[in-house]
Amino acid sequence: MLLYCKTITPRLQYICDFVGNILTGKGISITTDKNLYENETGARINYSDTLIKPGEFWLKPHSLLFEKDIHSQVIDCFDVPAYKGFFRTNGDFPFDFLAASFYLLSRYEEYMPHQKDMYGRYGHENSLAFREGFLNRPLINIWMQDFRQKIKEKFPSLTFSHSHFTFYPTYDIDEAYSYKHKNWKRSAGAMLKDLLKGELKKLELRRKVIKGKAQDPFDSYEWIDSLHDELRLKPGYFFLVAKRTSRYDRNISPDSAALKALISRHAARYEIGVHPSWRSGDNFSLIKKEKEIIEQASGHLIICSRQHFIRFTLPQTYRYLIDAGITEDFSMGYGSINGFRASVASPFYWYDLEKEETTSLLVYPFCYMEANSFYEQKYSPQQALQEMRHYYNEVKNVNGTLITVWHNTFLGTDERFAGWRDVYSTFIKEVAGKQY
User: Fold this and answer.
1) Can you name the residues that pair with 122 across neighbouring β-strands?
2) CA–CA distance, 113 with 118 (Å, rounded to integer)
3) Nearest Cα to Cα of residue 290 among 335, 320, 316, 334
4) Rounded Cα gap, residues 12 and 98, in angstroms
5) How far apart are CA 259 and CA 177, in angstroms?
6) What is the pLDDT of residues 335-356, one digit of tens each?
7) Is residue 159 part of a domain?
């Protein structure tokens, strides 16, 4: 496909590369040479204010991709059959989906003044997707499907690549164990708390686990492994290795033989990454240090990360990840509600909106995390199963990448999470059975 425009900007180049790679496996070629465009015999897109020649696909542009600053945008969503659109213009498509896709993909709105949530994160209530009711849909993928159909009507010989649905289960190891491998101060304090609360059953279980006479409630690793082996899945794991224990960083010590062994064991079988601690959100230098801890324990170069509590701020956090040597990030989702934060179910390179440049950081968006269902949305296991099925269907319909986030804590034997292991097993078997 050849796209004509009057000016080529970094924003336009970025979104044409993304859309072109999804649709055809290569970027959309861009030219400002009208003679070259007029002589093109293949598929051609006129991305300008006026028609040029008969038979072309005319996409009248919004101004966003030709701007160089960041300012509040006027956005009026409207209904198109089967989905919503915005940046309405004239032409063969009802709106400038290139500019609209860039707005969502770049997380433009997160650069604007906004309300923080209780954890200091970008609140999902600020987002256009939440306000307009399309947070639960991969809208950019849906737009591209419609565009594919409409341009095919103009150019029947145009061929497209056929992407395939992909399922990638991931796990965050925030608390490797509930009772085991804690230092004596933490264990003694926890036992005293159990005693004062009258939780004698819990106290007895803790005593048995510490003595090696019972399995730790959070030790679900063998169970998860057997599930992966049965279904031939290759998941990803993200380990929290904070040096200092705090309210939000509660894993066992990264200096302990137990955590080092757990990291090494998983690195031998799966892709692993760093789960930058809560404290790293205030001290970015810790990201590189925590990455190095996992590299030493695993013997592997670590290139993947996901922020603990999904705590990140654009553009600062992503810049520090790049500086630390991270090339793949899995944080693009909300830690307060499930859905498509960037309205997409495909990996994409992060665009630094302040620097106006495409970066080397490949972003893998997730749309479902069980902690959101449990803590934030107050769902039962069965309600969560239905929610997971919804996201599976949405991603499957656009042949996207379904990334889920679970924790070992939910998949163990802790009574608080009774029933969650069962629904996860049901869901993952359903998806894997349909994937092959």
Assistant:
1) 116
2) 16
3) 320
4) 8
5) 9
6) 999 999 999 999 999 999 999 9
7) no
Same domain, 205 and 135: no
- Dist CA 219 CA 221 (whole Å): 6
Same domain, 382 and 397: yes
User: Does a structural domain hold residue 161?
Assistant: no
Do 50 and 142 share a domain, yes or no? yes
Report how far apart, in Å, the C-alpha atoms of 199 and of each of 52, 160, 196, 247, 369 are: 77, 62, 8, 22, 30
Q: What is the dihedral of CA 103, 371, 195, 183, to 10 degrees?
A: -70
3-state SS record for the chain? CEEECCCCCHHHHHHHHHHHHHHHCCCCEEECCHHHHHCCCCCEEECCCCCCCCCCEEECCCCHHHCCCCCCCCCCCEEECCEEECCECCECCCECHHHHHHHHHCCHHHHCCCCECCCCCECHHHCHHHHCCCCCCCHHHHHHHHHHHHHHHHCCCCCCCCCCCEEEEEEEECCCCCCCCCCHHHHHHHHHHHHHHCCHHHHHHHHHHHCCCCCCCCCCHHHHHHHHHHHCCCCEEEECCCCCCCCCCCCCCCCCHHHHHHHHHHHCCCEEEECCCCHHHCCCHHHHHHHHHHHHHHCCCCCEECCHHHCCCCCHHHHHHHHCCCCEECCCCCCCCCCCCCCCCCCEEEEECCCCEEEEEEECCCCEEHHHHHHHCCCCHHHHHHHHHHHHHHHHHCCCEEEEEEECCCCCCCHHHCCHHHHHHHHHHHHHHHHC
Q: Are both 273 and 409 inside the same structural domain?
A: yes
Separation between Cα atoms, residue 412 and residue 331, nearest integer Å:
24
Give the total number of structural domains in the chain: 3
In Å, how far are 29, 95, 278 from 20, measured between CA atoms?
A: 9, 18, 37
pLDDT tens-digit readout, 52-104: 999 999 999 999 999 999 999 999 999 999 999 999 998 999 999 999 999 99
Q: Would you say residue 323 lies in a domain?
A: yes
Instruction: Tell me: do 119 and 239 sit in the same domain.
Output: no
Which domain, by its residues, includes 65? 2-154
- Decide: 326 and 291 in contact? Cβ < 8 Å: yes
Residue 39: how many CB atoms within 10 A of its CB? 10
pLDDT at 189: 60
